[in-house]
Amino acid sequence: MKTRTVLYFCLLWILTACNLNTPIQNNELPSTTPASLPFPTDLLPTSVTTDSILFPSATPISLNQAILDLSGQVLQTIKNQDFFLLSSYIHPVNGVRFSPYAYIQDTHQVFTNDDVAGILADSSVYTWGAYSGTGEPIILSFLDYYSKFIYDEDFANAPQVALNHRLSSGNSIDNSTEFYPGSMIVEDYFPGFDPQYGGMDWRSLRLVFSEYNSTWYLVGIIHDEWTP
């Protein structure tokens, strides 16, 4: 009996020393989660929006890039005065509206793709809006309008290009996004030509594209410049 008592206390002492008689509180288990390591923030992806300035060399290929490429093709046909080819880019239902300044109006001239295809043979004189500053009506033939309010600079080689972001600034209100909801607008922009004018001699041409039956078509050609 004495021997059993001694053995019992010896066993109890061993269990106490090994801490095997203490339960794990709240069923807590040792954590197997590795320690967190610092991650280089310069490797994190960055968000891209259509409000960012995008240039023709932007990657990867996306809708934004596709619109920029489309705009480049359209601009080249305008530069070459290849209006028959240009007509294939024009919206088949809405046609294309020509706006001499940033503020777009319902009264601005709208031409169908058939109109544009044969525009070189059209000697008619149209009222395109009003001159900024004087308010006098802009009464010109299409080719005269083209020379003054479409391709008055070599926009196909403009130094700055932007998608859905206005590069130019002036007194004329830009209502293009409200007038053409859901559109994609590409601006080709010259920040100025003569340093003595401090950039007030800037010019821009905006091409407006709208989706129809899963295809993007030209619906607006907006000329813009500094206005008094």
Distance between the ends = 116 Å
Rg, Å, rounded: 34 Å
Largest sheet features: 6 strands, mixed
The CATH topology turns out to be Nuclear Transport Factor 2, Chain: A
CATH class: Alpha Beta
In helices, the fraction of residues equals 10-25%
Shape: globular
Q: Which percent band covers the strand fraction?
A: 15-25%
Mean pLDDT over the residues? 80
Examine the secondary-structure arrangement and name the CATH architecture: Roll
Number of helices: 6
| Protein structure class | alpha+beta
Please give the domain count. 1
Question: Brief overview, please?
Answer:
The protein has 228 residues and is an alpha+beta fold. The protein has 6 helices and 8 strands; from the N terminus they run αααββαββαβαβββ.
What does this molecule look like?
25% of the residues lie in helices and 21% in strands. It has helices at 2-18, 63-79, 83-87, 113-117, 142-149, 176-179; strands at residues 96-99, 110-111, 125-130, 137-141, 160-163, 184-190, 203-212, 215-225. A six-stranded mixed β-sheet has the order 2-1-8-7-6-5. The protein has a two-stranded antiparallel sheet with strand order 3-4.
